[in-house]
Amino acid sequence: MVYGSPFYTLKGVVASEHPLASVIGAQVLRRGGNAVDAAVATSLALTVVLPHLGGIGGDFFTLIRDPDGHVRFINGSGPAPRRLNRALVLRQGHDRMPVHGPLSISVPGLVDGLNLLWRRFGTVEWRDLVDPAVVLAREGFPVSRSFSGTLSILRDELVRDYGSRMTYYPRGITPKVGDVISFKGLARALECISEDPRCFYEGDVAEKLVTYVKSLGGVLELSDLRSYRAEEGDPIRIEYRGRLLYEMPPNTQGITTLHMLKLLEDLNLKTVGSLSPHRLWLFLRAAKVAYRVRDQYVTDPRYMRVSASELLSRNFIEGLRGEFKKVLEEGSVEEGGQVGGGDTTFFAVADSSGWVVAGIQSLFYPFGSYVTEPTYGITLNSRASSFSLILDHINCLEPGKKTMHTLSAMIVVGDGGEDLLALGLSGGHFRPLLHAELLTNIIDYGMEPQEAIEHPRFTWHLWTKNVDCEEGYVTEGLRGYEFRKVTYPSRLGVAAAVRLKGKVIAGYTDIRGDGMPVGLE
């Protein structure tokens, strides 16, 4: 049984985790904007209505496929502040990077990332794409299930920060589902951004951010913000069963998705039940190999000892396949520090001219650092918490360095370019495993995207024995892991997708979230 309804159209569609954001993006398409314009407006709307997942104090990445078949990558992640270094963190009594707080903050890249996307490929005036988010923040909107639930769960943590308390708990009350909430400060920040997006990095917004972070013991400087620029580059790609799969390159973990799929490609998954213990075993063992490579090699590409192209070379992949064969024979699991999930929001857009956009944004964990600048109501990310403090670790903290980033998304091209799929989901460190599950649901098991999205999922808490499985999987007989059954539908990632197949454009969202696809009639 499939619970969600795809939106089928011949004109254009937006699939996001919030209905208002999808509507705003679709309105841009209706007024003649392309999928890139709609993506910018959708992203900014999401920063308002889902501020716990991907506000303007966070990061943004996107893959863009143009009507001629070229795929480009925009990296809107920021580096560690120049004064944030290993010695400073250790002096303050931490033996690992703090998960939250002022020292967990990296330079926010979302605003400049969106502006770079627009400058390169947009057609509508910048102000017209920002203004709908301004209106949402100023006039208010009904609180969603996801937003309300997170405000309730994290209340004790958030109210310790003055800015978070004043922004999210007006009059001391936790907003409930359907309550109307507004963010007047954020509206003013977005108005400034609509006039000049660099005001976030060089104007009063930047000054207020720096002043507040410093007041809490952080080390963010105005020079860190002024010097930041998002980057454009090429995606990474592989072939998988006749399809061309594009992923996001380092500093993202997109390469881990591609490694997993190349390991699974040698197997005839059609003979393996989609909910069987055999599938769990194969995917978990492939994950062990692929994530080891990630943790050994992937970081800011300026600091990598082996390039992404080498990591995807035929010789390297063959070496991984040899390792995969060995781990399939093992019955033990390496012990190590558990890596958590994080939270994020993904959206996708396609239009009738052939533009396809896969966009993803995040504060890392829900509400990121738990630090919210009170004047403008901007919550800052906790992305610097991903750095290691181990000196010889590839992802060791260094000033001005970007951390290995969990955000990634995919564009899949099949049937000679006549079948395009943009796909992604929340999931933090779990994302490559979840991407592999979604893609094999579609390609190997022949599921339609909506069915693939709704199919039960599983996640592995890296380098532990712990595996979370949604109801439906059979786990009896598997050794070496401890399985926890999770009620379906859970929050093991919230997915979205768009598909352009021939003249038909379809949008898909996940029953695990609050979103819906919205297209043109």
How do you describe this structure in short?
The protein is α+β, with helices and mostly antiparallel strands. Helices cover 36% and strands 20% of the residues. The chain has helices at residues 19-30, 35-49, 51-54, 86-91, 110-121, 126-139, 145-153, 155-158, 162-168, 184-195, 199-202, 204-215, 222-226, 254-264, 277-297, 308-311, 314-328, 431-443, 449-454, and strands at 7-9, 12-16, 59-65, 71-76, 141-142, 180-181, 231-233, 236-240, 243-247, 343-351, 356-364, 372-373, 378-379, 410-414, 419-425, 458-460, 466-470, 482-486, 495-501, 504-509, 516-519.
Distance between the termini: 26 Å
Helix content: 25-40%
Uncertain runs: none
The order of strands across the largest sheet is 1-20-19-15-14-9-8
What percent strand?
15-25%
* Total DSSP E strands: 21
Described by the principal axes of the CA atoms, the overall outline is globular
> Could you describe the largest sheet, including whether it forms a barrel?
7 strands, antiparallel
Structural class designation = alpha+beta
Rounded mean pLDDT is 96
The number of helical segments is 19
What's the Cα radius of gyration? 21 Å
